[in-house]
Design goal:
Peptidase_M17_C, Leucine Aminopeptidase, subunit E, domain 1, alpha/beta, elongated, 20% strand, 2 domains, 5-stranded mixed beta sheet, Macro_dom-like, Aminopeptidase
Length: 460
């Protein structure tokens, strides 16, 4: 169903939000029948718990939703979204218990709960629709929900239907929807236009490698978004085991998140000069696959020794970042499902990011907390620069030893983004098990925090 709010009608049923601290006072004010109903059902206002209230002729007359205690509210994101799935189909209206960021989170989480991936099997998300609460910008939240739905759809679609050409088509559809300029450099033309590492990584696949480029906006600061678009990663000749390959349809999660952010920026008319760059490849195995030990010359002229063909994401991003830096943007951001080391460090729920800009880092951290899109800063740790310098070439794509894998990958990428204000996000892009507002599967990470931070971090 569309991730939109219900029309404001008098038929919308009331939703009363209660915490354990306010429950007893509310019960005391009710008629005896309601008191008996609530007490008899054992409702204690736990986080996300729902109790339907009886109305006339056996139909629901409203519902109670538990907010949980303070610890619950600080620990759980989108807790009210679980209530959306527990309510029957119909239109519902929140009471005025929440305000500010808490109200926005509740309303957005409700929209997120309406998402289901139904391309291959009919599915539906929560059917209970929410009237936009007074005090929220409904159009903005609907645009964000549409951006998140795009991210999830792209990641959830398997490589059989989301190879480099399909990813380019999806990006073109976004561009056409908002009048953006769009172009693609494909196959051997990558060599002619000096994107040698994108070509090297993707040349073994039947679906040719390509660089996707979208531009939009004529005023405001220049913002360049670069997303890793590895549509499937076998590991190349350094092949992954079957268990490591199982989720590799999500290896274009960086591209998906960048496209979701770009779509939302354009839908909201944010005053930026936006540029989106996506190197889209499949890291496949064939006689012409790039090899361990190969030395590649990048767009920037830096040489890279390939010590593991399964560290391909940083190679394709390197050419795209060098290209992006040539435009001297005010801010350039890359997003990528880049390293398992980041997952070991912070788990699947946090999006680690790197930035040398203290203002950007502080603004992003504040925005992330405000919009319930958690991020965590990791350092561009200069003493580790020597780990990515193999001696035979300028750079090593896979330093030996296994230490600081996310940091060394970020340092590698920074070499190609030199000269501009640059931030890198090493995201997971996947929800391992269902949570409120986030079904198992593809998920956006970090992009809503970036969106919220943009007005502050891009001040002239």
């Amino acid at each position: 169903m569309p991730l939109t709010f219900a029309p404001d009608t008098p038929d919308a049923l009331p939703l009363t939000l209660l915490s354990p601290e306010t429950l007893d006072g509310w019960i005391d004010r009710q008629e005896d029948a309601v008191k008996a109903w609530v007490l008899g059902n054992g409702f204690r206002a736990g986080s996300g718990k729902v109790l339907l209230l009886p109305g006339a002729h056996g139909a629901p007359g409203g519902a109670l939703i538990g907010l949980g205690d303070g610890a619950d509210r600080s620990r759980e994101r989108f807790a009210l979204a679980s209530a959306a799935g527990a309510l029957p189909e119909g239109d519902w209206r929140l009471d005025g218990t929440l305000s500010g960021a808490e109200l926005e989170e509740a309303a957005l989480g409700w929209l997120f709960a309406g998402y289901a991936f139904g391309r291959y099997r009919k599915k539906s998300g929560a059917r209970a629709r929410l009237v936009a609460p007074e005090g929220v910008d409904a159009a903005r939240l609907e645009a964000i929900a549409a951006g998140e739905a795009l991210v999830r759809d792209l990641i959830n679609t398997p490589a059989s239907d989301m190879g480099p050409s399909a990813l380019a088509a999806a990006a073109e559809a976004v561009a056409q929807g908002f009048g953006a300029t769009f172009r693609v450099v494909t196959g051997e033309e990558l060599l002619a236009q000096n994107f040698p590492m994108i070509h090297a990584v993707g040349r073994a696949a039947e679906d040719a490698p390509r660089l996707i480029e979208m531009t939009w906006g004529e005023e405001g600061p220049a913002l360049t978004l670069v997303g890793k678009g590895v549509c499937f990663d076998t590991g190349g000749l350094d092949i992954k085991p079957a268990a490591g390959m199982g989720l590799m349809k999500k290896d274009m999660g960086g591209a998906a998140n960048v496209l979701g952010l770009a779509r939302t920026i354009m839908a909201l008319g944010v005053k930026v000069r936006l540029r989106v760059l996506i190197p889209a490849v499949e890291n496949a195995i064939a006689g012409n696959a790039f090899r361990p030990g190969d030395i590649l010359t990048s767009r920037k002229g830096l040489t890279v020794e390939v010590n593991n063909t399964d560290a391909e994401g940083r190679l394709v991003l390197a050419d795209a970042l060098a290209y992006g830096a040539e435009g001297a943007p005010d801010l350039m951001i890359s997003m990528a499902t880049l390293t398992g080391a980041a997952r070991v460090a912070v788990g699947p729920d946090l999006a680690p990011f790197y930035s040398d800009d203290e203002g950007f880092a502080a603004g992003l951290a504040a925005a992330a907390q405000e919009v319930a899109d958690p991020v965590w800063r990791l350092p561009f740790w200069a003493p580790y620069e020597a780990m990515i310098e193999p001696g035979i070439a300028d750079l090593d794509n896979a330093p030996k030893g296994g230490f600081a894998g996310s940091i060394t990958a970020a340092l590698f990428l920074r070499r190609f983004a030199g000269g501009v204000n640059y931030a890198h996000f090493d995201i997971y892009g996947w929800q391992p098990s269902a949570a409120p507002g986030r079904p198992q599967g593809g998920v956006g990470q970090g992009w809503r925090a970036i969106l919220a931070a943009l007005p502050e971090v891009l001040k002239a």
